[in-house]
Design goal:
With 156 residues, the chain is mainly beta. The protein has three domains: 87 residues, no CATH class; 31 residues, no CATH class; 34 residues, no CATH class. It is 9% helix and 20% strand. The protein has one helix and six strands; from the N terminus they run H-E-E-E-E-E-E. Strands 1-2 form a two-stranded antiparallel ribbon. It has a two-stranded antiparallel sheet with strand order 3-4. A two-stranded antiparallel ribbon has the order 5-6. Strand 3 and strand 4 form a beta hairpin. The longest helix has 14 residues.
Amino acid sequence: MNRRIFIIMVGLLALLGTACSSDGEPGDGVGSVTEGDGSGDTAGDAGATSDDGGTGTPADPCETDNGGCGEASLWTCSVDALGDLQCADIDECQVNNGGCPDPEFWECINNKGAPPLCKDRDECATDNGGCGDPAVWHCTNFKNTTPHCEFNYNPD
C-alpha cells in the first residue's frame, strides 16, 4: 500500500477512535490498522484495514472525502497502478456548456478546481459578426443575442 495512503487511513481511523484500543495497542482487527514492515506490502500484515472482510485488500481511499482531492463535483480521485492517489480537475464545460447560457452566445471557460466561468462571446470579433464589409457596416455585440448591424457608410 502506498505509504501516504496508509498514513491518511491511519489518521482517519484515529479520528474515528477505531485505530487502537485504549492501551495503545492495535485493536481487534475491526477497523484497526497495523503498520507493515516497511516493504510497502500490507496484504499479509495483521489488522490491516480492508474492505473485504480482513484479507488485507486496502479500502479505496477515494471513497472517503474524495481522497482529499477537493469537492467531488470539481475534482476526480483515482488510484494509479502504483497505488498513488491521483487528483484531476473536472472540465465542467464538456457537459451542457458548464451550465452557462446558450453556447452560441456564451463561452464556458474551465476554472481549475472551481466552478467554470461564463463569458459572453463577441460575435463581432469574427467576420464582423456576419454584418458584411466593416468599411460599410458596424457590428455591435449584445449579450445573449445576435449582434446588431448598423449601416456605417462614410465616403470620406
